[in-house]
Design goal:
- The mean pLDDT is 96.
- The chain has two domains: 2-111 and 235-301, 3-Layer(bba) Sandwich (FAD/NAD(P)-binding domain); 127-231, FAD/NAD(P)-binding domain.
- With 302 residues, the chain is of the alpha/beta class.
- Helices cover 23% and strands 30% of the residues.
- The structure holds flavin-adenine dinucleotide.
- Flavin-adenine dinucleotide is lined by residues 7-13, 30-34, 36-38, 40-41, 44, 46, 78-79, 106-109, 111, 129-130, 133, 238, 241, 271-272, 279-282, 284.
- Its cofactor is FAD.
- Belongs to the class-II pyridine nucleotide-disulfide oxidoreductase family.
- It comes from Neobacillus paridis.
């Protein structure tokens, strides 16, 4: 059996695997897609110590770094079940069962899509999901934020300081964000809020040039010319398969303590699949390191 089995091969999983392997314990990583979300990322400018890199390049160097150590990488395999017996068992969709003394869950998250024409087509060509990452690309431009919850309004406030103008498009008749955020938003001169509006299409040629929405009260269609659309309707943790095992919060994020421990002894978690406050590469790597050190502490005590 493994001493530490990491499930998920994004920044959190890679970091956890390296920290575990450096303790000289038997370490494995099973990942559906080694690299994770960064494989879908173009420019990265906030990975501290590296002024600029690109997602696929960072993913390749994560893999190269993990392979410096004696880590079994099991790629293109999806975990579907975890169960604690004498050892912890992780069953893969292939039917194989991996056994380990400790497990680190680092299955990440995915952005919730609006699923309108143009969204997939213009991803990274004006359609963005992360204001901390891609906001500066829209300096002096007109953008829209889809979603009037806390993340949408935070994004709009953030973008208003960079972009020329920000339009918030909310499906419901009212914004759902906290009132302090709404007050801050409405104090800004370059923000327009459109409520009760259904996004119909993100338009463009080689990149985004506008957005079309339907006024749900009148059925009338409107088109706004702009260069960027931030989709902010939620991040979904990849934790559905853990139903009934480790404790998760209301939105499905795994609840961890300061050592990365979950409610199931010997099972740790790190990165975007957990209830961490923010989801970024550097943060998920830090929590991956924490979870590995937490798992090592657990091993020497049990
Ligand atoms: P992920 O990267 O999501 O990795 C999860 C891993 O788990 C993957 O290997 C996946 O295949 C695997 N997995 C999932 N389910 C299973 C399963 N059941 N069995 C086995 N394996 C499974 N952050 C920044 O700091 N700077 C940026 O510029 C930036 N830009 C971004 C741009 C885009 C378009 C996106 C989508 C995200 C961006 N982020 C950025 C956020 C950053 O990518 C994430 O915070 C980070 O990748 C989280 O790492 P993670 O390891 O927790 O999860």
């Amino acid at each position: 059996p493994f001493d530490v089995l990491v499930v998920g091969g994004g920044p959190a999983g890679a970091s956890a695997a390296i920290y575990a392997a450096r303790k000289g314990i038997r370490t494995g990583v099973v990942a559906e897609r080694f690299g994770g979300q960064i494989l879908d990322t173009l420019g990265i400018e906030n990975f501290i110590g590296t002024k600029y890199t690109e997602g696929p390049k960072l993913a390749a160097s994560l893999e190269e770094h993990v392979k410096e150590y004696n880590v079994d990488i099991i790629n293109s395999q999806r975990a579907k079940r975890i169960e604690k017996k004498d050892l912890i068992e992780v069953e893969l969709e292939s039917g194989a069962v991996l056994k380990s003394k400790t497990v680190i869950l680092s299955t990440g998250a995915r952005w919730r899509n609006v699923n309108v024409p143009g969204e997939a087509e213009f991803k990274n060509k004006g359609v963005a999901y992360c204001p901390h990452c891609d906001g500066p690309l829209f300096e002096g431009k007109d953008v829209a934020v889809i979603g009037g919850g806390n993340s949408g309004i935070e994004a709009a406030i953030d973008l208003a300081g960079i972009a020329k103008h920000v339009t918030v498009i909310e499906f419901a008749p009212e914004l759902k964000a906290d009132s302090v955020l709404q007050d801050r938003l409405f104090s800004l001169p370059n923000v327009t809020v459109v409520k009760n509006a259904q996004t119909k299409e993100i338009t463009g040629t080689d990149k985004v040039n506008g957005i079309t929405y339907v006024d749900r009260a009148t059925g009338e269609e409107h088109h706004i010319e702009l260069q960027g659309v931030f989709v902010q309707i939620g991040l979904v943790p990849n934790t559905e398969w853990l139903e009934g095992t480790v404790e998760r919060n209301r939105i499905g994020e795994i609840i961890v303590d300061k050592r990365g421990a979950t409610s199931l002894p010997g099972v740790f978690a790190a990165g975007d699949c957990t209830d961490s406050a923010y989801n970024q590469i550097i943060i998920s790597m830090g929590s991956g390191a924490t979870a590995a050190l937490g798992a090592f502490d657990y091993l020497i005590r049990n």
